[in-house]
Amino acid sequence: MKHAGLNVNKLHYAHNHDIQTAVKQRRGYSLGMKTCPIIRNISLKTRPLDRSIYPCNATGHNYLGLGAIFMQSIHRRIQKQQSWTEHHRKQKSYVPHGLLCLTLAVHFDLVLLDVCFTQVLAWFEEGEETVTAFVEPFVILLILIANAVVGVWQERNAESAIEALKEYEPEMGKVYRADRKSVQRIKAREIVPGDIVEVSVGDKVPSDIRITSIRSTTLRVDQSILTGESVSVIKHTDPVPDPRAVNQDKKNMLFSGTNIAAGKAIGVAVATGVSTEIGKIRDQMAATEQEKTPLQQKLDEFGEQLSKVISLICVAVWMINIGHFNDPVHGGSWIRGAVYYFKIAVALAVAAIPEGLPAVITTCLALGTRRMAKKNAIVRSLPSVETLGCTSVICSDKTGTLTTNQMCVTKMFVIDKVEGDHVALEEFNISGSKYTPEGEVTKAGARVNCSIYDGLVELATICALCNDSSLDFNEAKGIYEKVGEATETALCCLVEKMNVFSTDVRNLSKVERANACCTVIKQLMKKEFTLEFSRDRKSMSVYCSPAKSSKAPVGNKMFVKGAPEGVIERCAYVRVGTTRVPLTGPVKDKIMAVIKEWGTGRDTLRCLALATRDTPLKKEEMNLEDSTKFADYEMDLTFVGCVGMLDPPRKEVTGSIELCREAGIRVIMITGDNKGTAVAICRRIGIFGEDEDVLGRAFTGREFDDLSVMDQREAVRIACCYARVEPSHKSKIVEYLQSYDEITAMTGDGVNDAPALKKAEIGIAMGSGTAVAKSASEMVLADDNFSSIVAAVEEGRAIYNNMKQFIRYLISSNVGEVVCIFLTAALGLPEALIPVQLLWVNLVTDGLPATALGFNPPDLDIMGRPPRSPKEPLISGWLFFRYMAIGGYVGAATVGAAAWWFLYCDEGPMITYYQLSHFMQCSPENEDFNGIDCEVFESPEPMTMALSVLVTIEMCNALNSLSENQSLVRMPPWSNGWLIAAMTLSMSLHFLIIYVDPLPMVFKLTHLNVEQWMVVLKLSFPVILIDEVLKFVARNYLEA
User: Fold this and answer.
1) What CA–CA distance (Å, rounded) separates 774 from 226?
2) Residues in contact with 650: Cβ distance below 8 Å, sequence separation at least 6, in sequence order
3) Going by C-beta distance under 8 Å and a sequence separation of 6 or more, which residues neighbour residue 93?
4) Do the strands 479-483 and 2-3 form a parallel or antiparallel pair, or are they unpaired?
């Protein structure tokens, strides 16, 4: 790569040359991206640094290829001028870079607003002056408020649960400024690019930093929240020549929000706020448009279709009555007649629109979130409850989700015997998948007492002493946690499980138990000093002397641990029991063969070799200031044994993935770890079979990028494992899955998961995850338990089934109301129901049983069915026919009840059908109505009969909705006690508006006698028989 005649590749290694000469050649150059001003301004004749010292938003990438000496020259140049005054001036150019805040929005239902507008319009057209004119808009306003309150209340509760789980990172950093002689602690958001930042063990990195100087033997960083790596990463100052390096490979960069596990370093802040790697992730989140859930899409489609049908029916009703606009009842005024039938059309719209549906759906989803919360699944977005039910793919992060994110030793071996070229190893397995200091050491499946094996005693001694970490019991959380580096904590946990000195730990508190066995070992030997880990020798060691209280006849010793290939090269002997045996070629080959098998086999273990130097040099003979001589001090070693560790899968994950497979859900692992480890974990948890060929089913991020777009789409269709990926890969994978109409759930806990969490139909964050991940998700697993997802999916499927039932219940009732209004208009009958009565039924009376239907028990085989297609209509053809059949009967029975009072009731006028169907022509001059008071056609009795039949039929219809196709004989009413209670309350409310003044006046109703109630019951009960016949047809013909 060249730019203006300058070979940039040479600049990657410019620290080995005269950097000033190189810079004088060209003041601007490319490193694969745009040139940063901070680089352009470093030259022999540069002007003083001003605002241009701020780097471009290329983050650390532009600094990867620069040598440490070059970066240090930048360091010195900036340090001379970065005063506090200058800092405050420059900081004004930057927006404070804290975490993004969560917002909570309330969405009012447009259908209800439309009805509200229409009702107010009808009121003004009518010109009513009684209290009834105010009832209709007032009732709608109340339900709008109730609907909003329910939604906000539930989502607010969910947000409170999220707040309780959040633990924000310390927002502090340490910087050098020109007018201060020592390092200063400031708020991290006050750091600007160009600041000289110091970090040390225990710190959280306050910005993206290019390392210029490491002030310790080694620098380890835990960057699992950003990259998903299970173990800490060793950093250095050397250039990284690969311009396509992923974050995991940028070993000369520190990233904002990651943790310093060991060491101390100084560097230049090259990016802050949205320019950091974490900031880029937030930008991705902000740019990601939230897709509508399948439920929202179906309800939108349903609402659109319903609106069209209602509009056509309303226009049709108005037009077929044009001939009646001049009837005498309207005073011969065509305008008054048109307004009257417009009101009839409005009543029809009110009847057709299920005004109570939004509130019922909200309540049902809210109840679902409560049930999920009891299973440790906290839902932040109500529609996401139902989305889980149609999830077809779960894209899961590995670290902390499928695995524990707690390194554990699972295997170890020591030398059993050496006879010539023959060597026998003793291999042991260790149980336990967390930092809990409890587990068994077994050999060939049988538990062993480690204290009887001399090799294990020495191995435990090395693990305890060659270690700077420890276990800690967090009393607030009730769990054991690491203090220090994950690998060393795993060794501490191993020592506790081995208990080689048979320490009595049964009566110790959990706090005392954490390091009980390690403490015993540390009392035997005193650690004098440590030779820190270095990249060249790939090991660390400690120099120990016998404690004064120790009676063991031993002298000073060095204990060494490190990469097997590095340690074994410096070994001259192997330990067999308590003796030393020369390390021959065949013995070495056998040891390395086992280690290779462990590292590349089913488990892909990370192996550490453990060794001692029985007769080390005296302390006075060692130069501890020169780390290049450490390898010489670690020569003539005796190999003791080897341990293999990994970030183990959670115990319950294998069963959960099997349940997902039975439910037709594909599980995909997406991780930042290397491919070998990822595939090994997939085999352990059942995503891949033990001997399954993973060619074409497992990819690294680089391999995926090298594919064409078509090949990427095909890979996403069949692959189940992605390793060494970056956030952009995760979002792309989700996008491709969505192009196949897959409903995707993304689980994760790190900042790197956040964009994909937001892009997926449902993002599922872990309770112990980062605040950014939680804010991007729709659901949080409080217990970090992958199996909770399966329970949540089951709940989602049950909720959808129940939702279909109460939608069926509400729509069939509304169809009945439409038929009622249409029949009265088409047949010329008096109004059977008026808008305020319809609103009362739709919003109040129907709402309670519909909500109770949300408590229907799930079907037994609900997790044995494949996920439903997102394109599956909410209302199928057969379901639509059932709506029409039941609704038709409801409408006919309602009109029939009103007509019965006019024609046959002893307390009614007992007129003829002709007089009833031509009531608008009623006048004293019309001979067809002699002896009839025309005001009888406005009596409240027929309306009360019609409304009572409507309410009673709908209570019977609620019983029909207990199951879509199961008979009431198989699914009796008492299977859902909430429904019985809701029906009782709904009937009580109906009696209330009939018998308690002044409600009868408000709703234009009156009292009914026993005879009239018997007619109501006779007209209502047949709806159960009709639906039983329809269920029988569905069971025996359609399902088959």
Assistant:
1) 14
2) 402, 403, 404, 433, 785, 786
3) 51, 54
4) unpaired
Q: Which fold has domain 362-368+797-859+872-1038?
A: Calcium-transporting ATPase, transmembrane domain (1.20.1110)
Active site (catalytic) residues: 397
Q: Token pair for residue 400?
A: 């902390």
Tell me the CATH number of domain 408-646, given options 3.40.1110.10, 2.40.128.600, 3.40.47.10, 3.40.50.1220.
Answer: 3.40.1110.10
pLDDT of residue 314: 76
Per-residue pLDDT tens for 754-778? 778 888 888 888 787 777 777 778 8
Phi and psi, residue 992, nearest 5°: -60, -45
Which residues share a beta bridge with 3?
A: 6
Domain boundaries, the chain: 93-159, 165-287, 294-353, 362-368+797-859+872-1038, 377-403+650-784, 408-646
Residue 116: both structure tokens together: 């509200």
Contact between 713 and 719 (Cβ < 8 Å): no
Q: What is the mean pLDDT of the chain?
A: 79
923: left (phi over 0), alpha (psi -120 to 50) or beta: beta
**Cα 194–Cα 197–Cα 203 angle in degrees, nearest 5:** 145
Integer Cα distance of 400 and 301 in angstroms: 39
pLDDT beneath 70: ranges in the chain: 1-171, 179-181, 228-230, 282, 285-296, 324, 327-333, 347-357, 359, 549-553, 860, 1039-1040
DSSP at 935: G
Asked whether the whole model's pTM tops 0.90, one would answer: no
Residue 744: φ, ψ to 5° = -105, 130
* Burial of 109 from C-beta contacts in 10 A (0-12 / 13-18 / 19+): buried
The phi, psi pair for 447, rounded to 5°, reads -70, 140
Name residues whose C-beta falls within 8 Å of residue 867's C-beta, 6 or more positions apart in sequence: 389, 390, 391, 392, 663, 664, 665, 743
Q: What pLDDT was estimated at residue 449?
A: 94
Q: Which CATH class is domain 377-403+650-784?
A: alpha beta
- Asked if 221 and 189 count as a contact pair (C-beta separation under 8 A), the reply is no
3-state SS string for 163-222: HHHCCCCCCEEEEECCCCCCCEEEEHHHCCCCCEEEEECCCECCCEEEEEEECCCCEEEE
Burial annotation 490-527 (CB, 10 A radius, 16+ → b, else e): bbbbbbbbbbbeebeeeeeeeeebbbbbbebbbebbbe
What integer pLDDT is reported at residue 126 of this predicted model?
46
Provide CB contacts within 8 A for 553, sequence distance 6+.
none
Domains 165-287 and 408-646 share a fold: no
Can you say whether the dihedral through the CA atoms of 936, 937, 940, 944 is positive or negative? Answer: positive
Taking only the tens place, the pLDDT of each residue in 402-429 is 888 889 999 999 999 998 888 899 999 9
In tens, the pLDDT along 965-994 reads 778 888 788 888 889 999 999 999 999 999
Structure tokens at 833: 């129901």
Q: Determine if the peptide bond prior to 972 is cis (ω within 30°).
A: no
Compute CA distances 821 → 351, 456, 485, 993, 1004, whole Å. 8, 88, 75, 21, 17
Give the whole-number percent of the chain exceeding pLDDT 90: 30
Name the token pair of 100: 């993004």
pLDDT, tens digit, 9 for 90 and up, residues 794-848: 888 888 888 888 788 888 888 888 888 888 878 888 888 887 888 788 777 887 8
CA torsion, points 946, 948, 949, 954, in degrees to nearest 10? 130
The CATH number of 165-287 is: 2.70.150.10
Closest CA to 171 of 195, 204, 198: 204
* The pair of three-digit structure tokens given for residue 293, joined into one six-digit string: 């859930």
Per DSSP (E only), the strands in 237-317 are 253-254, 259-262, 264-271
